[in-house]
Amino acid sequence: GQNIDQPTEMTATEGAIVQINCTYQTSGFNGLFWYQQHAGEAPTFLSYNVLDGLEEKGRFSSFLSRSKGYSYLLLKELQMKDSASYLCAVKDSNYQLIWGAGTKLIIKP
Amino acid sequence: GAVVSQHPSWVICKSGTSVKIECRSLDFQATTMFWYRQFPKQSLMLMATSNEGSKATYEQGVEKDKFLINHASLTLSTLTVTSAHPEDSSFYICSAHKGGESDTQYFGPGTRLTVL
User: Which of A4, A22, A37 to mutate to test the interface with B (most CBs of B within 10 A)?
Assistant: First the structure.
């Protein structure tokens, strides 16, 4: 079967750095996405990785290792507004998006 | 840009009535749109994939006669919840597939449906 694993919840301190991991087992791979979802709102696109390595976008970076079926989202200089759920999604061989359950990130002052 | 709108943003209706939700891609054409449902504190659940000019593809367990999807143009898809019941109360979110290297899905703001 197809599976995406992420921690259910993480807590971090304002101004710090946090890494949210995602491991996947899918039938084929055509890219991995990270989305941010604030409570009661729809997801917003953060990043896309299809090749191994690190993609940096401001305070957010996303890393991919296809051989390990692993990705992480790195958030630096955390702000209170970063409190949200972070969803990992993988596009499989049929170009279908397989969604993780999301990681709820709690930022404390 | 890649802006997707949804209307209405929230709706309250009586049990047994039908509700139509519109999803529009405002600044790009979307041959494929997706409809999701999300219950409180749960993950996104894909309901169906909507292709312009053809019938939608429904996920297992989703009743196609209850959740009618029409994708009449490259910028508009509609979801009609027919004979809604309280258990259909949920957050319905559409996304539109923007082509290109990543084929990213961009989400609408969602529609919160409450069935009394």
Answer: A37
